Fold:
Amino acid sequence: MLPRFRYHKPATLDEAVGLLEDFGPEARILAGGTDLLVGLGDGTISAGHVIDIKGIPDLSEIGYEGGTLMIGACVTVNRLLEFRGLPQACRALREAAAGLATHQIRNRATVVGNVCNASPACDMGPPLLVLDASLRTVSAKGERTIPLKDFFRGVKSTCCDPTEIVTEIVVPAGKETVSVFGKRKRIRGHDLSLVNGAAACENGTGVRIALGAVAPTPLVIEGLEGWGLSERRKMARHAVASISPIDDVRSSSSYRRAMAERIVRTLLDRLAAGGAGEGNP
Structure:
């Protein structure tokens, strides 16, 4: 059973910002609600006020123009999958979205919400990181743009102030970019990632790798400058040396390390083949 809270449904972004300014840490934003409602129900999240932003038209927009993909805060995962304008450069994002939860949950869950929940295993994190995405936010203090690599602070923790609303994700998606995604699960059906990852490059150079569920936050692998796809084994070993997985009820740290190396090698092989193939080992 859900706890008692006051429900608000603002019609404009200004109204939503005003409510957050009034209620501060006592308020929670509702967009998809697939994490929020579960957290309220089991007591891991508390809220005196829930602010439903689904009625704000601008936040439901998705578009691609001038080499940039823009995803509004209320765009669901299935809406992203259905968007015909999604560029080939964002293949990793499409692959991550297609494997996220069930069709029914994807009808509610939002892309921005998956990121803002800040789970170490969030599927949207690695592809957006390798595509150098940023988040745009607004509060009573004004607007700002936050590179996604600076957004995550820890498990379920971000750099956002309680009075800020993330309004959209901005993704540079040049025509020469190739990106791919893969993950390892315990079962074939719907399950959280034991390890997930994405890789991207332009014309076989400038390789970028990001991994999830192997550190307190989704993680960009540093130190790949100057390496090319001919050094795939070296990059995979370097990636494994850069992570800090834990033992938990779903997997051991040693298994996560082994799967991380396998996923990275698969992703890099796919990049070398122009993005072909499947990313799940």
